[in-house]
Specification:
It is a single chain. The chain is of the alpha+beta class. It contains ten helices and ten strands. A three-stranded antiparallel sheet has the order 3-2-7. A three-stranded antiparallel sheet has the order 4-5-6, with no helix packed on it. The longest helix is centred in the last third of the chain and has 39 residues, at 285-323. It is elongated. The termini are far apart.
């Protein structure tokens, strides 16, 4: 059996996971990610039984749905919200991997379900330490640890690939789109810190050679300038001239404006559209907000479907196979996952979101 290997996204391959994690921890990047993640984490995951068919089949489906919903409530370490978050990281890193840790319910936990299997923990894995394992036909047959080279079966994990191009399970990560802008931002921050350190001095003393005497070494110049900065009297040797350079504070403001623009480009790349609208849609804030909402829900439908499919195929399917006889409880009776809105977005929440988007540089509320 040839395990094979899928080519990793070019930027991930060049910069590896360390750079991706640094980028993910950037305040602007993480804020954009959380804006999208929270809308999903607020939803409740519910398994619903079939509603059409023979009464005995519906009752069997309800029994399986009851077990699945009970198991969701028993999930530890953050519960379903943490699990959804871990799966959702596939949007930024391209794919996600979460290990399922089984246990058996006892009578103290539930008299009804004592002796049944359930998932006690879900443990997210660092994808830089894992790869997909393939058979000769190119189909994924498991996950390979890059640490011990062991191959583990698909049934041991939950996994999502985000926008897989040409069936590349590595997916299309947001990191690929934001890396160049984030890298430029990191370089600008270095420039800002350097400029700020010089501005903090008000002005900078410089010793220049006049050419009228022997060359003075840089070490001597540094020593003299050190004494001058310490408010000590110094003797300027013949052949040197003391000069002062004053720096324009406005230059720092320019760098800050560039930094804000880079942050807005990160937000646009991660959240979606630049919210530019045509004449028929208008060009004001309301039109931009409408475009944002349309893009938001288009994206949300896609990621919700990914998560529901993952819960159906990797959560419910394996757990039901462990607990129920397939002949008596066939797959056609299996419940399906739904994401239910538990709270309605209030006008205040919408206003706060619009303010955040404006601060990020996505919405231009000054446009008429």
């Amino acid at each position: 059996m040839d395990l094979g290997s899928n080519p990793i996204d070019s930027i991930l391959n060049r910069e590896r996971l360390v750079e991706a994690e640094k980028c993910f921890n950037d305040p602007q990047v993480s804020t954009c990610f959380l804006i999208l993640a929270f809308s999903l984490m607020k939803k409740e995951i519910v398994f619903k039984a079939i509603y059409d068919g023979l009464k005995k089949d519906i009752n069997k489906s309800k029994k399986m749905a009851d077990l699945l919903n009970f198991s969701l409530k028993k999930l530890k370490d953050g519960g379903t919200q943490q699990l959804v978050f871990d799966l959702f990281t596939s949007k930024f890193f391209g794919w996600s991997l979460v290990e399922k840790i089984y246990s058996v319910l006892n009578s103290s936990q539930s008299k009804k379900w004592a002796g049944y299997y359930y998932y006690e923990y879900m443990q997210a894995k660092k994808i830089g330490l894992w790869d997909f394992a393939y058979n000769e036909a190119g189909r994924v047959i498991g996950f390979q640890s890059l640490v011990n080279k062991e191959v583990y079966p698909l049934e041991k994990f939950m996994s999502i690939s985000y926008l897989p191009l040409f069936n590349n399970k590595i997916g299309t990560p947001d990191f690929s789109r934001v890396w160049s802008v984030w890298d430029a931002k990191a370089e600008f921050i270095i420039l800002i810190l350097d400029l700020g350190s010089r501005l903090s001095k008000g002005r900078q003393a410089v010793l220049k050679n006049t050419g009228t005497a022997a060359t003075i070494t840089d070490e001597v110049k540094d020593a003299l300038l050190g004494d001058l900065s310490a408010n000590l009297n110094i003797y300027i040797p013949v052949g040197l001239e003391l000069d002062f350079h004053n720096f324009d504070v406005g230059a720092l403001q320019y760098f800050i404006q560039v930094l804000k623009w880079l942050d807005s480009q990160i937000a646009i790349a991660m959240i979606g559209s630049s919210l530019s609208v045509n004449e028929s849609q208008g060009s004001g804030t309301n039109a931009q907000s409408q475009v944002h909402n349309e893009n938001k829900y288009t994206f949300q439908e896609y990621i919700e479907n990914l998560i529901k499919d993952c819960f159906d195929e990797s959560y419910a399917y394996d757990l039901l196979k462990l607990n129920f006889n397939n002949e008596e409880y066939p797959e056609e009776l299996y419940p399906t996952c739904e994401l239910i809105d538990t709270t309605e977005e209030t006008p205040l929440e919408k206003a706060n979101l619009m303010k955040i988007l404006k601060d990020m540089g996505i919405l231009d509320t000054d446009t008429e």
